[in-house]
Amino acid sequence: MLSPSPHILKCRPPCDPSRSVSLVAWTSENSTAPLPAGCASTAIDVFFPFLGVWEMLIGMGLLVRSLNRTAILLLFLQVPGTMLPLVLLPEVCFTQFPLGLTMEGQYVVKNLVLIAAAIVVGGTVRQPKSPAA
Fold it and tell me: How far is 123 from 72, CA to CA, in rounded Å?
């Protein structure tokens, strides 16, 4: 049986595997706390598909060489949000600091590894040399 592409799942919040992670749920619930009750659930329903599209654009941009710079820019804009749980919620990310990672911690560290790989890819992107005048 074929399973749906993970990119398609990112755009459909009920199917997104990361949505089941308590860290993501906690962050989304607490980041919308100052909003009125009706707006908070709407903000979450808009945010998750937006984040899914954002991550898909990064992935597709890294596959197309001419879009690598744009993808790396999008990735760097995402970096602070990726690292935030390690600082704000170490008890959720670690069972024993620094190597005992919980499932949520593994998810965050996986994203940091992908960011490091994108930096390596970004180091290979060069401006085309203009002919000598």
Answer: 10
CA distances from 6 to 33, 70, 113, 115 (A): 29, 22, 18, 18
Neighbours of 73 (CB within 10 A): 13
* Tokens linked to 109: 């560290």
Q: Which residues contact 45 (CB under 8 A, 6 or more apart)?
A: 13
C-alpha–C-alpha distance, residues 48 and 13, integer Å: 6
Q: What is the DSSP string of 46-108?
A: HHHHHHHHHHHHHHHHHHSGGGHHHHHHHHHHHHHHHHHHHHH-HHHHEEETTTEE-HHHHHH
Residues sharing a CB contact under 8 Å with residue 71, sequence separation 6 or more, in sequence order: 57, 58, 59, 60, 61, 62, 118
2-38: per-residue pLDDT in tens?
A: 455 554 545 555 555 454 455 556 666 665 556 566 6
What is the predicted pLDDT for the residue at 57? 92
pLDDT tens track for 92-130? 889 998 889 998 889 889 888 988 888 887 777 776 666
